[in-house]
Specification:
This protein has helices at residues 2-7, 12-30, 32-55. It is mainly alpha-helical. It starts with a helix and ends with a helix. The longest helix has 24 residues, at 32-55.
């Protein structure tokens, strides 16, 4: 019985996906400030370039 249970791999895909998602969430939380700063700077650059081209 234990050997069959140990060799069963049916739920492994779900466990792996949950672990990957948890790792991504952890990385996002650790680097939250850097990610938000990057998004803010990129957005500002895009809008500044668009406004400069619109006035030219």
């Amino acid at each position: 019985m234990w050997q069959e249970f140990w060799e069963e791999e049916e739920g492994m895909g779900t466990v792996e996906m949950i672990l990957i998602i948890a790792a991504l969430v952890a990385v996002a939380l650790v680097f939250r400030n850097q990610i938000m700063g990057f998004i803010t700077n990129t957005g500002n650059d895009v809008f500044n370039q668009a406004s400069q081209q619109a006035t030219s």
